[in-house]
Amino acid sequence: MDVILIPGFWLDASSWSEVTPALDEGGHRVHAVTLPGLEGPDATRAGIGLADHVAAVTRLVDGLDGRVVLVGHSGGGTVAQAVADARPDRIARVVYVDAAPMGDGDAINTELPVVGDEIPLPEWSLFGEGMLAGLDDDLRRRFRERAIPEPAAVATDPLRLTDERRLDVPTTVITCEYPSSQIQEWIAGGAPFVRELASMRQVDYVDLPTGHWPQFTRPAELGRAIAQAIAR
Question: Which Pfam families does the record associate with it (predicted)?
Answer without folding.
Answer: Abhydrolase_6
